[in-house]
Design a protein that fits this description.
With 70 residues, the chain is an alpha+beta fold. It has one helix and two strands. Helices cover 23% and strands 21% of the residues. InterPro entries: DUF7569 (IPR055991).
């Protein structure tokens, strides 16, 4: 059994990340996979902070945009 897949690099920083520590962020639109990122714990925490900052900002253009989380 190969250990190479268990130590793939983080897509953000490139550091090796074991399966036990990796977090996967998937972006899907209409059930179609648009993007998948494998992130180490630190990069995942940064991603969450950016997401929270953007979502807390509200709708800046005044339009009728809608975000659906599935």
């Amino acid at each position: 059994m190969s250990n190479a897949a268990a130590n793939e690099p983080c897509d953000a920083c490139g550091d090796p990340t074991t399966d036990a520590l990796a977090r996967t962020v998937r972006l899907s639109v209409d059930r179609a996979n648009i993007d998948t990122q494998r992130l180490c714990p630190d990069c995942f925490a940064d991603w969450i902070r950016r997401y929270q900052d953007r979502m807390a900002g509200g709708d800046s253009d005044g339009g009728d945009s809608e975000i659906i989380v599935d």
